[in-house]
Amino acid sequence: MSSDPRALNELLEESQDLQADALRPTHEALDELVELNHSPNDEDHASNQAFHVEHQDRLRASLGATTLLGAAGGAALVGLLASPAFASSSSDVQILQTANSIENLAISTYKTALTLPYIGGSAANPVVTKFCQVTMGQHMQHDDAFSAAVKQLGGKAQNASDPAFVPVVNKAVKSITAATPSAGALQVVALALELENIAAETYVKDTVLAKSTTNKALFASIMGIEAQHASVLLAVQALLQAGAPQLISLAPGTAAMLPAAAGSVGFPNAFYKTNQAAPAGQGAVK
Amino acid sequence: MSKKSKSTKGFRGTESELVSMTSDLDQLHHDVGMPAMEAGVSEMIEHMGEAPGPKSNSRRTFLIGTGAAFAGGAALLAMGAAPSLAAAASRADGSASRLHSLDAAFPPANLKGDLAVAAVAASLENLAVFAYTAGLSAATAGKLGTVPPAVAQFATTVKGQHTQHAAAWNSVLAGAGKQKVTVTYPPLTPTIQADFAKVTDITGLAQLALTLETVAAQTYQAETSMLKSSAAIGLSSSIQPVEMQHIAILYYVLGEYPGAQTSAGTPVAFNPTNQAV
CA of B168: which chain A residue's CA is closest? Predict the structure, then answer.
């Protein structure tokens, strides 16, 4: 990788071409998805609903330990659980629209972060800048894929951000803009980390909830990418907190200087959790 | 950013903070992650018992399964570099999928559907445990040159997580009255053995680990749309992102962009499955 902006642009263009190639089979399979979703499958539905209820019971039980964004999702979940309409309306369209809303929030958050001099400006660590740029681009691609899937099912893509998380993000952004560069950088990383975990956990859950195999495959192809974003952010956070920002580098020899703990901080659990996952209908178009 | 011109300084921060953070996360894992795994596996056993046999979703059964799986891991280590089920197939064309079709003996014929997938998953996890164990042994013996502390920590932690993944799948098999899988995935074992024999430094070991993690992550990803049981999908999906995280940190250690990418190093927004077994 290079700090040359032209090289970065070429990289992003190449990535976009690859995305188009990657999405082609998805688009082809979407026809099958539409067909599948128009034919009821009571057995799958019952099984998924049972898992969903069990999962949500666990989620509700863990709400006390969640972080702010998780709590925001959880609060909305409690409301949804109390709604009789929810039990019969958990469709792939809603799941995809909620995924849209999470991606929209991530995109706007990275976009805002990149306007900060210590994230996207000349004072920024180039690795952090590039990570934010590439990650924002990937969230745009995820959003496009979810939108295409919704439209293929006859639904309307969600263009807004997840309403349960927006107030929390807005509050965090306000705090970030008033913070010093070092404190602000840590807050940006913490906010991005939380959003990435919400996205990853939601899609892990969605691989179970989605009715069609095509949608399951779509969520599965994205959940690990979001988990990688979280992993990188965990490592960056740890190095910032340890006062070692110079080790946020891809230069040869960096690995030899990393503290031992940096080798494991990026994957804290052997099994990815779902306690911060957004409820299926939270970001659905109303 | 130029990798060649960029200089770095040695770590001067407070490692105790990082150690403390890791300790907290480890505690969280045991408080939250393991109970979640137990619940998930118990539910999976309940849903996957397609064949006659003892079915139980009790904690006791789960623990028995886990303990036995750890014993299996010990047997695996005793086998060292010569897993007993190593197949004759080689990976000349780099196609893991092709290799899988060459070996008809695995998974065992009495395993169908999701249970067959569980057996393959357990054997892939065993292969990862074998590779990290061998790597750590070689490093300890001084065969790989200077080993950065972060790399040693990575290998030790990841080995532990793969052991837990294998235990989870073996608990599923044991709960359905099937034998646990203690062998490494036969079609890939000879290739990994041959590749490991060529490893002379940490970079080579990291690249081998990258291959294994990629195969595992892509296999779990592909399984998501093939498994029938919701609980099985949930277990598979809870592991795939963790393997992806291993991949991200391996790329970082190798000085490359820390995320899924093409062979040319271009980051990808959608993880492929062309290396799934």
Answer: A271
| Tens digits of residue pLDDT in A158-206 | 999 999 999 999 999 999 999 999 999 999 999 999 999 999 999 999 9
> What total number of domains does chain B contain?
1
Task: For tokens 């009495």, name the residue.
Answer: B110
* Domain residue limits at A238: 45-263
- Closest CB to A18 among B230, B248, B262: B262
Q: Residue B196 domain-assigned? A: yes
Q: Tell me the nearest-neighbour CA distance from B12 into chain A, angstroms.
A: 7
The reply to whether A217 falls in a domain is: yes
B240 with A220: Cβ contact below 8 A: yes
- Residue A200: closest CA among chain B residues belongs to which residue? B241
Query: Confidence band (pLDDT; 50, 70, 90) for A227?
Result: very high
Residue from B132, A166, B198 nearest A174 by CA: A166
B17 to chain A: closest CA residue: A242
At A66, list the tokens. Answer: 């969640």
Nearest chain B CA: its distance from A136 CA (Å): 10
Query: Which residues of B fall within a CB distance of 8 Å from A142?
Result: 269
Residues A109 and A169 sit within 8 Å (Cβ to Cβ) = yes
Which of B1, B27, B169, B172 best tests the A interface by mutation, with the highest count of A CBs <10 A? B1
Which chain A residues have a beta carbon less than 8 Å from that of B114?
none
Can you tell me the distance from the alpha carbon of B186 to that of B180, in angstroms, rounded to the nearest whole number?
Answer: 15
For residue A203, the domain's CATH number is: 1.20.1260.10
Residue of B33 and A212 predicted with greater confidence: A212
Tally of structural domains, chain A: 1
- Contact between A157 and A146 under an 8 Å Cβ cutoff? The reply is yes
Q: Residue B171 sits in which domain range? A: 37-47+54-83+95-253
B52-69 in b/e form (b: 16+ CB < 10 A) is: eeeebbeeebbeebbebb
Residue type for A32, please? E
Residue A37 is assigned to a structural domain of this protein: no
